[in-house]
Amino acid sequence: MRLPLLAAAAPALLLLGAPAQAVDGDLLSVILDEPNYSALGVALLAADLGDALSNPALSFQDFLTVLAPTDEAFGAADDTLLKYIDGKDEWIYHLQDVLLAHVFPTSVASVDFTDGQVRTTLSDNSLTFSTSTSLEVSLGGQSAAFIPELGDEYASNGVVHGIDSVLLPRSSIFTVADLVEFDPNFSTLLGLLEGVGLLATLRDQEGPFTVFAPTNDAFAKLPAGTLEGMDPEDVLSMLTYHVVTQNVHSAMVDAAPGKRMTFETLEGRPLTWSNGNRLN
After folding, report:
1. What burial class does residue 273 get, using C-beta atoms within 10 Å of its C-beta: 0-12 exposed, 13-18 middle, 19+ buried?
2. Radius of gyration of the chain (CA)
3. Backbone angles phi, psi at 114, to 5 degrees
4. 142 beta partners
5. 107-125 burial code (b ≥16 CB/10 A, e <16)
6. Nearest-angstrom CA–CA distance, 84 and 95
7. Which of 193, 159, 195, 196 is nearest to 179 (CA)?
């Protein structure tokens, strides 16, 4: 299953050439009142995004445009979203990332999308719009079509457009192993992970995993010959000390007493993340 999203604004619609319409209720109300968006409503509330849609000031935007996957779109999605919703305490930031990938600032009516137009979402993903045949939106090779009968549903703080598919940001597609593989700044780490078989663990096991990944520059600060002098068991111990078996987000630490949290690592010893983003 996949997740639906949020919408845009009312006063600004006149500036964009959208028809003037009487609006009744905020974005959250529009979504919760639309029978086609019941799954989206559940997902938004599970992700604690209800306030952001009913009070856009909380997302630092006056108006929002929401591209809302329908219940049918949710039903066609894989189990990743179900995992996020059912395990929201562990996966809430992933769930928020999916949902906010469907929301961008300002209010845009359907007639004001142009071919090749790009919009940056609240989760910092880039959506590209196409009008060559019908109105569509794409993200990272995935695409969704606008549903005309569910378009331009105005709210007091934005607009909602129904779409026929859920778009997944890379946080829901890539494993932590993929992120290490694709980033050249982690080439030294990649070689070490492959050498002790830990890369396969990070790719194939369910997780969740948080990796505090030393860059190539970080490894370069070690005394010459340090890595070459380590046996595989020591390398494995060093690497697993950088892996935490839960999702760790900076916002969790910022909200913790004293901005300090301690986590158990895959290696077994505790790792503390304290104010100033320092690990020890």
Report:
1. buried
2. 22
3. -120, 160
4. 139
5. bbbeeebeeeeebebbbeb
6. 6
7. 193
Confidence category of residue 278, pLDDT binned at 50, 70, 90: low
Q: How do residues 64-80 score in pLDDT, each as one tens digit?
A: 999 999 999 999 987 88
Give the span between the Cα atoms of 167 and 11, in whole angstroms: 28
Q: Can you tell me the distance from the alpha carbon of 30 to that of 22, in angstroms, rounded to the nearest whole number? A: 13
Query: Which amino acid is residue 130, in one-letter code?
Result: S
Distances (CA, A) of 172 to 102, 169, 191, 233: 14, 6, 24, 32
Residue with structure tokens 């606008």? 146
**CA–CA gap between residue 131 and residue 114 (Å, rounded):** 6
Neighbours of 218 (CB within 10 A): 13
Query: How does pLDDT run across 143-178, given as a tens digit for each residue?
Result: 999 999 999 999 999 999 999 999 999 888 899 999
Q: What is the pLDDT of residues 20-75, one digit of tens each?
A: 454 668 999 999 999 999 999 999 999 999 988 887 555 556 799 999 999 999 99
3-state class (DSSP) for residue 216:
helix
Instruction: Establish whether the linkage from the previous residue to 208 is cis, with ω within 30° of 0.
Output: yes
